[in-house]
Each structure stands twice: as C-alpha cells, then as structure tokens.
Amino acid sequence: MAEENRRSFLKWVVNGLGAIFAVILGAPAVMYLVDARNRKPRESGFRPVEGVNLAELEVGQVKQGLIRDIRRDAWTLHPSDVIGRVWVVKEGPAADALDVFTTVCPHLGCSINLSTLGAQPVGFLCPCHNAEFNLDGTKVEGRASNPAPRGMDKLVWHIDPTNRARLLVDYVNFKQLEPTPIPKT
Amino acid sequence: MGTFFDWLDHRTGYRRLRDALLIEHIPGGARWRYVWGSTLAFVFAIQVITGILLMTAYVPGDEDAWGSVYFIQYEMDFGWLIRGLHHFGSQTMVVLMAVHLLQVVIAGAHLPPREINWWLGLALMGLILGLGLTGYLLPWDQKGYYATQVATNILGNTPLIGAFLQKALVGGSEYGHQTLTHFFALHVGILPPLVVILVILHLAAFRRHGVTAPVVIDEANPHAATAESVARAPVHDVLYLLLNLILAAGVGGAAWFLGVPTITVGLMAGLFVFFGVSRFFIKPTVTGHFWPDQAFRDLVVCLWIFAIMVTLVLFAGHGHKIDTPGVDPESQGLYEYWAKAGQHGYGANLDAPADPMTESYPARPEWYFLFLFQMLKYFKGDQEILGTMVIPGAVGFLLFILPLLGYGRMRRFGHVVGILVVTAILCGAAALTLLAFADDSPDFDAAGLIPRTDKQIQDAKKHQKRLKHAGEEARAAVHAAGDGIPAEGARFLIRGNPRIMGEKLFKQHCASCHAYEFNDEPEIAEAGQDGDKKKPAQPEPKASDLTGFAGEKWIRRMLENPGDPKYFGRTPRLTRMTEWRLDLNDLIDSAKDPVAAKKEVDFQLDEISWWLAEQAKSSDEVVLALKEPDYAKRFAQGKLFFFDDEKGQNCGSCHKVEKEGNKGPGPDLTGYGSAAWVHGMVLSPGHRSRYGGTTRIEVKGKGKVEVPRNTMPAFRPPPDTPGDKIAMAEFLESQPEFPKETILYLTNFERELIVRFLTGDHRVVFGGQPVSGPPKRTK
Lengths: 185, 779
Description:
Strand content of chain B: under 5%
Radius of gyration of chain B: 36 Å
Number of helices of chain B: 28
Radius of gyration of chain A: 26 Å
Shape of chain B: elongated
Distance between the termini of chain A: 61 Å
Structural class of chain B: mainly alpha
Helix content of chain A: 10-25%
Structural class of chain A: alpha+beta
Distance between the termini of chain B: 76 Å
Largest sheet of chain A: 6 strands, antiparallel
Number of strands of chain B: 11
Oligomer: heterodimer
Helix content of chain B: 55-70%
Strand order of the largest sheet of chain A: 4-3-2-1-9-8
Strand content of chain A: 25-35%
Shape of chain A: elongated
Largest sheet of chain B: 2 strands, parallel
Order of helices and strands of chain A: HEEEEEEEEE
C-alpha cells in the first residue's frame, strides 16, 4: 500500500510540475501572440487631400483624392505613404458646400466607386456586394438588395486657411457593419 | 467524469495508446542517469513551441528579416524571452547531445543489439547541428551572414557537385532573398519533421531493448533484475560520485570559460553533483517503471535544464540596452518592464543588419562550431578539404562503426573503444575550441600552455577591436531601428546612419582640411614598433576646426579670437573677422575704463553668440519658444547687440540675417549652423551668401593679386541623372570663376549624412538614392 501511495504521490507531483511549467511558458507565449493589442491606431489629424484643387472644383463635381502620411508598419517606416482615399463632392457654389467621404464601404470594406450616367455622377456603388449610396452619401433606400448598414462615412474636413485651394481632412477608418460610424481601434 | 472517459475510450481506444507510451518496465529501477534522452526531447519540444511562436512574426526576406527579429526582440511583449529560449535552447541541445552521447557509450548502450538506434542517434545529431546552422543565418545579422558564408563555401568545395549544391542552397551565386527562404524552409519545414520522425524511430528502437541497465535480468521475471546484480558495492557509489564530479568540473569549467554566467555554471555543475550524491540515498530496486518513477526524474531534470536556459536568457544574452523614445523605465510597471525586457538588455544578442559593404567583419561561427572553424586554420589551399570534409567525415565514420566493434567476444573491447573514441572526440573538440578562443583573446595563454607570438597577440587585439566596433554598429542599428526602419532594408540603418557613415564620409571628404576631434580609439601598432598605441595619423589641417561648429561655445570662442587656428587662423584669405576683433580690442583699450568696456563687450558677445546659435533652430521652434517672455526678451536683446551700431556690434554692416543687415561681404547668417546653411556651404562655398567675393593677397614676384576669398571645393552631386546634370550646368553658369578642379562629387545622400553628422542630427537618412530605374532592355 505504501508503494501505491508513493506512486500516486509521484503522479501528482509530475502532473503538477508539468502544469506549472506549462503556465510559465504558456503565459508569456499568449501575451506574445496577442502583442498586436499594443499597436495604436493612427492619431487623428488634418492632412491635405492630394489631387483635389478646391479652386478648380465645379458644382456637382465628384473627385477622388489621396491622403498621405507617415506609415509605421511594425518595424518599417514609410515616411510618406498613401493611407487612404476620399470622395469629395462639391454640392453648391458656397466654398464650404462640400462633402468628404471615405472610399471604404461601411458594409465589408471594399472600395466604393462613383456611378455615372454618361459623364454625370449619379451616386456611389460598391463593386463587391452592390451597396448603393446617393451622391450625398446616404444609403439608397427601398431596394431589395442593398446590404449597406449605414450611409457612406463622412470625414471631418476644413479648408486650409493659408491656401484656400487646399482641402484638409481628418482621415479615419470606421468599423464595418455597424449601423453608425465607430472608429476602429 | 469517469463515464465520459469510458465513452471516449470506447470510441477511440486512447487508453491503449497512453499505456503503450507510459508503461515501460525498467529492470533495476528508475535512475537519474537515464534522463538525458528525455531532456533532449524536452528541449526539442521547447524549440518547436518557441519556433512556431517566432514564425508568427518573422519574415524571411533580405530587407525585412532583421527588422522582424528586431521587432520580436525589442518591441513585442515577451519576444525577448521567446527568442532567448529558442536561441539558448539550440545551444542547450548541443551540450545535452554531447552528454547523452557520452552517457550512452559509458553505459555501452551503443553495443549490439542496439546498433541501429546508435545510428539513428548519429543521424539526429547531424540534423540538430543542421538546425543550429540554418537557424544562425535567419536573423540576417552580420554574424550569421558572415559565419554562414563560410559554411556554404565549404559546401561549395565538395568535389564534383559542390558548386551546384552551393548555388542550389544559396539560391544563386550571392546571398539574398532565396538564401533566407531556403534556410527558413530547411529550418522550419524540412529538418524538424525529419527530427520528429527519427525521434519516433529512436524511441521505438529504444523500447525494443529497453534501457541498458548494468544488471542481470531475473530468469523468472523478464521485467526485473536479480537482487544480487542490483546490490552495489559502496565503492561503485564513490566511483559514480567521482565521475559526476569530473563531469561537473568539466561541463562547469567549460561553460565558465565560455563566459557563461556564474549562476548558470552553478546550476550546470550542481546537476551533476546532485546525480553523484543521489546514489547514496536511493536504495536499489529490482523492478521499476517509467510512469511515474522515471518520468518524475526526467521532469525534474528537464525543469532544472529549463531553469538553466532561463538564466542564460536573463544573464548571458549580451543584448543591447536601448532607450525607447517616450518610455521611462523608472515609471514602467512591473508587467511592462518584463514584457519589454529586451529593451533593458535581456535576451539573445542581435548583431547589426547583414551588409556585404562591411570591411573586415570579425566573423566567427556559434561556439559549438568553433572547433571545426579552428581546424580549418591548419590546412592550406588544396589541403583545405582535409579539414572541411575528410577529417569530419572520418570522425563520423569512426562513430558510425563503433557498435560493430562490439560483436560477440569483442563486446568488452568495443565498449572500451567506444568510451575512448567518444571521450577523445569530445576532448579534441574542446581543445580546438579552447585554441580558437585563445587565438582571439590577447591576454589568454592558458597559464603559458599555449605559446603565443607577438603577431598572434596583435591579431587577437585587432580582432577584439573589430569585435568592439561591430558591437557599436549593432548598438547603433538597434537604437536607430526604434524610430522605424527604411523600406530599402535594415542595412540602411548603418549605411544611412550619420553617427557612423556621416563621420566616415566627413573623414573622407572634409577632414583633409578641417580639424575635428573624433572619439577615435588609438590604432594598434604593427609588431616591432615601440609602444602599443599611437594616435591615428591626421593631416595638418588647412581650415577651421568644426568640433561643435556654430554652437554657442564655438561662436563665442571664435568671437574672442577669430585668428585662432581653430577658426580663421589657417585661412589667410578670410581676414575680416580677425581685423574686426583687433579694431574692437583697440576700442576697448582706448576706452576711459577699459575693464568696464571689456566687461560690456564680453556680455554683448555672449548674448550675440547665444542668439546666433539659436539661428540653427527651425522657425517653428523659434516661434514656439518666443512665446516664453524670458526667451523673447533675450532673443530681442541678442538681435539688438548683433545689429545695432550704437548699443551693439553692428555685425549687420557685413552680415545679413533674414531680411536685415548687409548683403556682404560677410556670409549670410540666416539659419547659421542649420542643416540648410551647411548644405549651402558644402554645395556652393563661393556663393555670395557664403564666402564669395575676392580679396587681395601678396604673391611672390607679382605683388598684390586679386583672388577669390573662398578656397573650399564645391561638393556637387555627380551629374549622372538629367536633373543633376542641369544643376551642375546652372552652378557653372552662375559661378563661372569657380575653379573647375575644385568641383568635387558628393551625392545628395552623402551630403545629407555629412550635414547631419556635423549638426548633431542623428536621425537615419531615408531614401536619397538617385532617381533611377532598371537598365534599358536591349531586345
């Protein structure tokens, strides 16, 4: 019986030590695997829209522009890289009659295209699942198949006070499939 | 619960598998010395786990490999620990293989009927060494890069197929992307599965005959030993203790010699001492089981070895401490501190990024390959193959045939020969390793046992100096990497590093005229010269000393004595500052109260120096600083002293700053000392905004002659691209009098490096390569 007790005790010790070791190696391993939680989203800030000259933008015109910034990709630093694209809609003759939308679809993140009739812009259409939006960015209602969860995401913008032809935009990535725009973390 | 496992067993039969693995009879009982095979399996398992973790973050590509390892080591939570365990795990496996090998031959476990298992073991040894070799390259740092070059060149030297093999493995005739992808595939996808397969066969073959116990099997019970054979004479226990003490001293001593931390050496030696002593307390038994008796011993020693690995990660890594911008180690929480302990210098070393541009990198293989490395020193030219293939091949063959010497009546002979051969090989390898270390250490002569010539000591010193330099580059690279690595690849952390390449280019292009106080180490003199150290030879300077150029102190001292050789003393065509100071001195001397006048002038010059040094700051910085009333007041005062004729020094009569002051003849001091100012000076020193215009000097036999004031060459981008061609043409057009022979070439990238070095801006220069493309296709 003493022998049985000894063996049973040893089994417990072996299992226990093994479990302790598993935790010692496993806990740092898990923290290592989820390290990406430490990566911060891009700080918000106004950046010039490349390719859109407000002085030349006509009423009713829709233009696509590029947003450029430093891009830090884990260890690599790209000092000036395209971080996103925007649609700029000139709605009226007033200088501030503008709308700026991200090109990222609120449905599942494809890149939204402008749809035109001849040369006339009539709305926006996502080429992936046919999410449809009006020129003012609102979701087209009353269609049997419009998967868009919300309208196109409007970005905060202002006109550069030192150069009235330059549009500055705070570019943000929003979560997909939410009924309202929520910035990604 | 019980019913669930019954249900599971009914479906899967898992208990049979479990029992097959765990139920093993050990005649003569479990013993501490049977643990070695298990420890190898244990460390290999750690290698697989940490290896897979590393794979989740590693990139096998020329530009990115180093950066990804940097990121693991210095930025990812516990990356330093995972990588450290993997790094030291490989070395631990090599040591354990040696111990396992020795223990096997001592026990006679290689003798028939266990020959095949011996051969499987030898194959496993080769695979593990292959894993070490391929893994060493993957960080794509200097030491892995250069050490592995040696290995692949040896492969290339194989008769007949060498060149082909080398090219296939390296992925071309030079190292690059495919060297990494090939080594990576070997390291993670080919060699480890082979190890797993061979380990399974090794274990299966081992189970066929069981442990090689020094006992006689009981005829009545094949699982038990006879009581007489188990009983031990006390002298055996003493001998066993003695053997373990020798091993403790040998392994501990070797580890200590290799620079392993004391605590690790203690744990290593302690393990053997523990083994030796344990025999006195454990009663011999006739039967024993793997589960749990042997398993317990295995696990205890495995954890002991894990503890050794952890101490190595903590204390033997020679990692580089870095300060991360915005991180204060004092205010870091305990978790943050240990999660990012790589930044505090813990974990495995990471050398500077691999760069074929490096001169004389002191390449050495990992320590367990040093004996092979050392052997190559004794063979020359076409005999090299003796050292690279013939001798290692012969040793391998000898190991291979060892069990064959144990057939029938030769068994005893085979046993002794086995012990002798393995001991001799291990001792030979140890001796060669020692010699390799001695060759590299200036003050190591093993108490006179290894005679050294002066030349050898010189070489060792040079090696140490190169090693130190390589260490500094590694530190600089790691430090710079924190700000982000250029997409062109991690090697640009060095190539674009102002503190390294900027200084080098400054020495090359500027130091032949300008003096500069470099933080140089004295050169090591060649043998035969008296004295060990001498200062590097510097040419006699012909222009100002640029140490601390345009800083407050530099300006102030220049204003105190512009004719000093450090300032304008060596440039006889630039005389106006010196004349100004002489006039000022006269003015002070002729004042009513010269002491008070001198004091007043000193104060003004102090403030002018400060104000002028502030010109190097960017306008944004100054605008921000001017919001401070004290700063604004001082700034206005300095400006007043600079420009005002009555209350100041009227410097504006010669110098322009921004929109105030005269256009000459003194240089334009707008942004004086800033990068932009220095760029202008380097590109166009004879421009009217720098040292333009002419002066009259006395020439023998010709009397006074008018000459340009500037004598510095213009360093222009080489006109290789259309844009730079135009820039060169424009320069020649705007300054037709500029002497053509003093137009020298310096690329934009190089100029930026020099300017950043000079202005103390240590950020790595990104990009800057001339705009270009692949060569045109020729159909």
